[in-house]
Amino acid sequence: MFNFVHGYLSWTDYLRSMEKNGTWGDHLVLRAAASCYKTPVRVISSLGCDIIINPDGPVDNTSPLVLGHIHEKHYVSLRSRQGKLYGFDERVKQT
Fold it and tell me: What does the longest C-alpha to C-alpha distance in the chain come to?
């Protein structure tokens, strides 16, 4: 897995960085979440290239977790606290 992590000298350095408060998750965290929750993760990108991250094992929940990704920034939830989607309603409905 370390081959997919850039900017760290070792796997230990990556893990130490990730365990710090305030550290944003990355693609490895999303893969782990998909596998842990046994559900696909759909990422709607600000670059217009959406991706689906599937769990490694069987899927228990076919309704994907939907996140937004702001290029060179971080991942964001697309649900408001009231459960409505932020401006992405039509794109999500099209899939």
Answer: 42
